[in-house]
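Record pair follows.
FIRST:
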Amino acid sequence: MTRWLAVLAMLLLGTADASAQRQCWRPDQPSCIDMLRLNRDTWQFNMCRSEVLRFQQEVQDYVECQRRDREALLQDLDEAIHRFNVCARSEYC
């Protein structure tokens, strides 16, 4: 009975963890910078500046997402090691 409850708890926690995870997407550099060499009027310059600022925010978001993924992966490793050690110390896994 307790083994069944443990399996059920693992399934429920695994589902919650999977829904909390999200894919980290590396942003692309704005292409407008190359276009500024051809035509550098004020409007295009300001639009490109906005794109660069957006890119800056996207990079910060990407780095934060990578940090969260790293932490989650290390937690998964700690849990796996703990579960392995519990099984290694007893005959009930």
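SECOND:
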Amino acid sequence: MILSVGGNEVAITSPTCYLISIGVFVVLIRVILAFFKVWAMKDGEHRPDMDKPDPITNYSFKNLFWIGFTGLVGNANTRDYLLPAVIGFDHILGKIPFP
């Protein structure tokens, strides 16, 4: 696998480096999606009943980011148990062949 970074080509020839690069890519995607989830939670899009007050909307950005990134805390509408990240890692691993 050859990556082009700043005009320089970098070849990944080690299986360990290959797995680490896919892991880093998956974590970067997870971080980006967590930012979008924070903005959605701040707007209250996760609430099933808009009439009842929800304490999550009063959390700090850092706390909401942790809820969105980990996917293991919060109510049922904010948890995803990291399943999308695991599926994404497996999907990327299958789509990008190792040389």
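COMMENT: Residues 18 and 86 are 16 Å apart (CA to CA).
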